[in-house]
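Section 5.1 Outputs to date
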Amino acid sequence: MRQRLRETYVDLHAHPELSFEEHRTAALAVERLAALGFVVHAGVGGTGVAGVLVNGDGPCVLLRADMDALPVTEDTGLPYASTVRTTTTADGVESGVMHACGHDVHVTALLGAADLLSRSRPAWSGTLVVVLQPAEELGQGARAMVDDGLYDLVPRPDIVLGQHVAPVAAGLLGVHGGPAFAGTDSVDIRLVGRGGHGSRPEATVDPVVLAASTVLRLQTIVSREVAAGDAAVVTVGTLHAGTKENIIPDEARLGVNVRSFDETVRNRVLAAIERIARGEAATAGAPQPPEITIRDAFPPVINDPTETERTRGVLAARFGAERVIDPGPVSGSEDVGVLATAAGVPIVYWLLGGWDPAAFQAAVEAGTVDQDIPSNHSPRFAPVPHPTLETGVEALVVAALDRLAPPAPA
């Protein structure tokens, strides 16, 4: 199995697809699941795939993986590095396409787990549902599948299980009960100025200066408006303005990302963003207030505490307690919780270590983890196939078998 896992992973890594464009990946999943005896539903929520394997009476367990890649130009130096390029529809920017968040790991591990569980049917009873979800990077794929009737096509599960590869040592698993992954909001801000010649700024309202002051002021929200015991992240990820150095443009656009674990904190941060943008525009004498749009919002992942402890126990029994850690709340976001909330069932979602253990340990000892170990979304993000893939497969299998019923007596 190890060789097939690697071959699948390398193939997926070399052929990444953006959100809602995962046609090749979905076709591969459909083919593999059908060959294993699953009843397969394709095109759910656009490009999503759901497979059902009924194996007698018992609980229903849903295992989930996301499929989409990112508009990132790969810089890993891997022999199977992606050479795919695209022009993004939203802003017309040309870039490479890369599995910079490890969704190729997730798909490979889920297909491997489906294979093992299908071949070990004498050892369990119940129903296994596997979901390969599109567009996690947009925070839209899980909702799209639910809205397209996912739970009319597959049985409602008793629990949702899944994992996300992370830049920690391969072989480690990270499980945290309660708020485990942050909710996220993307905020678009259009700052309106009055353009003109670069030699006559007095005749303009410069939106570039307005944008700069807004960016700096936004950085005070977490440090001055969020309590020390709470958590939030505010990041300005894009700033677009102007076409030429001697032209003061009419507008500037900011793309802001917010992470939070608590609804009260979330509301306070979003209100502060709007207040600051409007205040800076007024101070600059902007001819009109800014346009502020919240999009791609999805809630935090809240792991069920009881089910999480149960999962921690079975993972520790399989891998050893020293390999199952509590990472605390993760500021990254995931829309997998939508699948559990829509079904009204608990979720347990954990981290899967993916970095070379020797390299990670060396970075820990040198105190250079942040500098030497690329994070998710980096063009240098490169999980090692082994033991990442085997650990991911085994973690899904043991967590699923723990929930599925034992076989009926002969």
